[in-house]
Design goal:
Blueprint lengths: L5 E6 L5 H9 L2 E7 L3 H18 L3 H8 L5 H6 L3 H4 L2 E2 L8 H14 L7 E4 L8 H6 L13 H11 L3 E6 L10 H12 L2 E9 L10 E9 L33 E2 L9 H6 L11 E2 L5 H15 L64 H7 L12 H10 L3 H22 L1
Parallel strand pairs: 1-2, 1-4, 2-3, 4-5
Antiparallel strand pairs: 5-7, 6-7, 8-9
Helix pairs in contact: 1-14, 2-3
C-alpha cells in the first residue's frame, strides 16, 4: 500500500456500506456523507467516531460507548466537532443542493483538498426494483425517486471528480421499458464522463450472500481509466460460519457475549470479527405461536432435503392469511449449509419471516448482528436507532466486502494516473 490518500464524497450514503469498504481499503478518506435518514446519519457519525478514535489509539472510548459506560453524546464529544459536521443529514433535492454544496465546499477549502477524486453512492432503489414495481399500482412511474440521478449528476458537474461509482439494483435497466436507464447513462456522459456498467454479484467478492447489483463506473473524459473488475474470491465455507460463534437466542432475547470457542477462519480472514471485539446488537424479535409453528415447519423442510415450503404447503390450521396466491414464499430459511444466503432486503425491518435462522432449536428470525454479518459488516460496526431502523439500514446497504473489492481496483487506477503525472 502506498502513502497516497484519495478523497471521496458519499451521496445517498445510508449506513455507509460503500464508505466502509473504501475506507477499509486504506487509501480513501471521506470528505462528506450526505444522507436524509436520521438514524442512518447517526450511524455514520458513530462510525466516524470509531475511525477517529482508532487512528488516535483511543478505542477504549468507543468500547465504553458499546458497553453503555458513556452516552452517545459523550462519544461525540470525544472527537473534533468538525468531524461530525461532515455527516450532512439532509435530503438531496433541488431546494437543498446548494446548501449542501456550501457545506462540502467549506470542508474542501478548510482542508485545502483541491481536486475531488471520487463520488460514490446510489439513490434509493425502490423505484427501480422489480419488487417495488410489483407492489405499486402505477409501476413506480410517478415515483419522484426515479429522478434522483439528476441530483447525482449535479454533484458531478459541480465537483468534477476524477471518477464516480453509482450503485443500484439490476432492475434499473428495465425500469420505464429501459428508457430511464438510457437517460441516466446519457446524463452521465453529457456531464463529461466515459461510462461503463455491469451487474456484479457480492458473492463473487467474499460476501456469503447472492446479491446482484448494477455498478456504474464513470471516469472523466480526460483520464485513461477502465471498468474496475475485481478478481473473483469465493471462500470454501457455508453461511453457518457467520453464526457459530454467536450465542443461541430465543425469540425476543439479546446477548452481549460471544459463544465459547474460536471464531471461524472466514470471520477472522475477512476482518468481520477481530480480536477484542465486543458483541453488540445480537438481538432478535418476539414471535407469536402461529409464526413459531410455521418457522418449525419451514426449517425442518429446508434442513431435511432443501425444500422451500410455499405458503399453501403449510398445514391448513397455520394458514391465517386470506390471500394465499401472492408472496407465497414469504417464509424463508437462511441457507446455513450453503455457501451463500439469499439477498438481504430492507423488508427485514417489517418482519423476520423471510430470514429465519436455520437452527431449529432456536426457531426464530435472525438477529440484527446476524443480518449485519450476512451483509459483511464488521462486528465493531454499530447501527443506531430502534431495532427496525437498524434492520432497514442493513437491508439497504452495499456489502462492505464488495465495496472494498471495487476500492482496491479504483485505487490502483488512481495510483497509475499519479505515476503518469510524475
Amino acid at each position: 500500500m502506498n502513502d497516497r490518500k484519495y478523497n471521496f464524497i458519499d451521496l445517498f450514503a445510508g449506513a455507509g456500506g460503500l464508505s466502509e469498504g473504501f475506507i477499509a481499503q486504506g487509501n480513501f478518506v471521506p470528505i462528506a456523507h450526505v444522507e436524509m435518514n436520521k438514524y442512518a446519519s447517526e450511524t455514520l457519525k458513530t462510525r466516524a467516531c470509531y475511525y477517529y478514535l482508532a487512528e488516535n489509539n483511543l478505542l477504549s472510548v468507543y468500547r465504553n460507548y458499546l458497553t453503555g459506560q458513556i452516552t452517545r453524546e459523550q462519544l461525540y464529544a470525544s472527537v473534533p466537532f468538525g468531524l461530525l459536521n461532515t455527516i450532512i443529514n439532509k435530503e438531496i433535492s433541488s431546494n437543498s443542493i446548494h446548501e449542501i454544496f456550501e457545506t462540502i465546499d467549506g470542508i474542501v477549502n478548510v482542508h485545502n483538498l483541491g481536486e475531488i477524486d471520487l463520488i460514490v453512492g446510489g439513490p434509493p432503489c425502490q423505484a427501480y426494483s422489480l419488487m417495488g414495481r410489483a407492489v405499486d399500482a402505477k409501476n413506480m412511474r410517478k415515483d419522484p425517486r426515479n429522478y434522483l440521478y439528476k441530483q447525482y449528476v449535479k454533484f458531478l458537474k459541480h465537483y468534477k471528480p476524477k471518477a464516480f461509482v453509482f450503485e443500484n439494483v439490476p432492475g434499473i435497466v428495465t425500469a420505464g421499458k429501459g428508457e430511464r436507464f438510457k437517460r441516466i447513462i446519457g446524463a452521465f456522459r453529457t456531464a463529461g464522463y466515459n461510462v461503463e456498467y455491469h451487474i456484479l454479484d457480492a458473492y463473487d467478492y467474499g460476501v456469503l450472500q447472492q446479491r446482484r447489483r448494477m455498478i456504474i463506473f464513470g471516469w472523466r473524459n480526460d483520464l485513461q481509466y477502465n471498468y474496475p473488475f475485481p478478481p473473483v474470491v469465493h471462500y470454501n465455507v457455508t453461511v453457518n460460519a457467520l453464526f457459530r460463534d454467536l450465542s443461541h437466542l430465543t425469540p425476543g432475547e439479546e446477548h452481549n457475549r460471544y459463544a465459547p470457542g474460536r471464531a471461524s477462519g472466514y470471520l477472522r480472514h475477512t476482518g468481520i470479527r477481530k480480536p477484542g471485539d465486543i458483541l453488540t446488537l445480537h438481538m432478535c424479535r418476539m414471535h407469536n405461536q402461529n409464526d413459531l409453528d410455521i418457522y418449525h415447519h419451514v426449517i425442518e423442510a429446508w434442513n431435511n432435503g432443501h425444500h422451500r415450503l410455499k405458503y399453501y404447503d403449510l398445514p391448513e390450521e397455520l394458514r391465517t392469511r386470506q390471500n394465499e396466491t401472492s408472496f407465497v414464499d414469504r417464509y424463508k430459511v437462511v441457507a446455513g449449509d450453503m455457501p451463500y444466503s439469499h439477498t438481504m432486503i430492507a423488508h427485514i425491518a417489517k418482519d423476520g419471516h423471510y430470514f429465519i435462522h436455520p437452527d431449529i432449536n432456536q426457531c426464530r428470525s435472525i438477529s440484527v448482528r446476524e443480518a449485519a454479518r450476512i451483509q459483511s459488516f464488521p462486528d465493531d460496526f454499530y447501527f443506531e436507532g430502534p431495532r427496525s431502523a437498524k434492520f432497514t439500514q442493513i437491508g439497504n446497504a452495499v456489502p462492505p466486502l464488495m465495496a472494498h473489492a471495487l476500492a482496491v481496483e479504483i485505487a490502483q487506477m488512481l495510483d497509475q494516473e499519479g505515476e503518469r503525472q510524475l
